[in-house]
Design goal:
- The chain is built from 6 helices and no strands.
- With 97 residues, the chain is mainly alpha-helical.
- It is globular, with a radius of gyration of 12 Å.
- The N and C termini lie far apart (27 Å).
Length: 97
Amino acid sequence: MSIEAGNILRQYREQKGVSLKEASDELHIRIPYLQALENGRAEIIPSNVQARGFLRIYAEYLNLDAADLIREWDHPGSSPLSQNTSAHRLSSRFDDF
């Protein structure tokens, strides 16, 4: 599990101006599970399969590349996301959507 993947989720959510409650309501994923993803705390989610599924759903909701985010979650530092995490680069990528 990767705290970096969680930081990316949180940054994109905040840039979109979406609260955890709004995301939870739209995705039908409990707030504690979204917080667990954002904090890199997979042990809070009942199973690894559910964690990866929630991560994919949340990433797609935020218009992120779910495959890259899952790769970063599973193997920290191995995805292109781990090399592009400055706030400026995130803002630039977000503006493209």
